[in-house]
Write a structure and sequence with these properties.
361 residues, mainly alpha, globular
Length: 361
């Protein structure tokens, strides 16, 4: 029997890909439904992976510390003790967040809704005092948007969202259990990943991929943990300042500043504008300037003192690429893109440099 030439094999491959592509397009709604079902099933594993990603290093450091203790029983159960301490601290932080912080923010939002007539009247008074083209059109659009935002139907939808969050607590609890097993089986999971890579790559290439994967994981870890700690520090300082100087809705404003601080360059500017705007409506433009001055001073202290000590040069890219990453990925994925853009660009830079290094060798 005569063998098929390479041209016929390529033609057969293209035909097969065409049939597969046609079937995918023809059954796209059904495939999308299957993918959605798979994502829902794997949600606890995603949550568990994220928790394990941030907690595996504290657990590992405590485990090494306990193994140095001379008591045999402590050395024997060092991993168990490390897991108990780290997860107890994690659950306490979650409990505090749900019990106090979210409750305080909810009260602030409820207060805004209850006093909306007074707040909107002050806003329109300030807006009317400024000469702007097409002012009335802007006022009508703003009034329509804010009115729709506070309608009962929207609040009812918000209630459904809260109900959805409550129903997802089962996934979160399952994710916590999965994260514990992920940390315990970290080494075996690494071995499985290496064996899977060795099926499609040479041993030297597997080692190279493993080495740079560790570097990427360390970079992501140090960047996001540092960013979170910096946001918490700045948020606490801001909240204390707002409480002491009797700012309106201090917990909500502190949260806005903390979350905004996680977005490089533009986040602090946007959060300062929002805080100043809310203060101007509630307390008047003159007092709002003091809050703007506080945000400027805090931003300078954070950028030059707090952030370099906490985050340092974890991503290793210049300010130009930081701005590029925030704008590009923010335009593609919105707020999530602004948050993830910097480490993604840093990862691409690391892979390009590593490719050049390998080629030079």
């Amino acid at each position: 029997m005569q063998k098929m030439s390479g041209t016929w094999w390529r033609a057969l491959g293209f035909a097969l890909l065409f049939v597969i592509g046609y079937k995918i397009i023809d059954n796209f709604p059904r495939i999308l439904g299957y993918l959605s079902m798979i994502v829902n099933i794997l949600t606890p594993f995603v949550i568990g992976g994220i928790i394990a990603f941030f907690l595996h290093k504290p657990v590992g450091k405590l485990d090494k510390l306990f193994k140095k203790v001379r008591l045999p029983i402590v050395q024997k159960f060092s991993m168990l003790l490390s897991l108990i301490i780290v997860y107890a601290a994690f659950l306490f932080a979650c409990f505090f967040l749900l019990s106090y912080l979210i409750e305080a923010i909810y009260r602030n939002i409820a207060d805004i809704i209850a006093n909306w007539d007074i707040i909107s009247a002050r806003f329109f008074d300030i807006f009317n005092s400024v000469n702007l083209p097409q002012k009335q059109e802007w006022l009508d659009k703003a009034n329509l948007f804010l009115t729709n935002l506070l309608e009962t139907e929207v609040l009812f939808k918000a209630g459904n969202i809260v109900g959805g969050i409550a129903s997802s607590l089962v996934s979160v609890f399952t994710g916590i259990i999965i994260s514990i097993y992920t940390i315990l089986e970290k080494e075996s999971l690494k071995d499985i990943a290496k064996k899977a890579l060795s099926l499609v790559a040479r041993p030297t290439r597997v080692e190279t991929i493993s080495r740079y994967s560790r570097r990427l994981i360390d970079m992501f870890y140090s960047y996001f943990t540092g960013l979170a700690i910096d946001a918490v520090v700045v948020g606490i300082i801001s909240t204390v300042f707002y409480i002491v100087f009797k700012a309106p809705y201090p917990w909500l404003l502190g949260l806005i500043v903390g979350v905004g601080n996680m977005i490089p360059f533009f986040g602090p500017i946007i959060s300062a504008g929002v805080v100043t705007f809310i203060a101007a409506i509630s307390l008047g433009p003159i007092k709002a300037l003091w809050f703007l001055l506080f945000q400027i001073v805090l931003g300078q202290i954070d950028g030059n003192v707090i952030q370099p000590r906490i985050i340092g040069n974890s991503v290793g890219i210049s300010p130009f690429w930081v701005i590029f990453a925030v704008l590009l990925f923010g335009g593609i994925w919105g707020p999530w893109g602004m948050l993830l853009g910097v480490p993604i660009v840093a990862s691409i830079r690391m892979m390009i440099l590593s490719t050049d290094t390998i080629q030079n060798k």
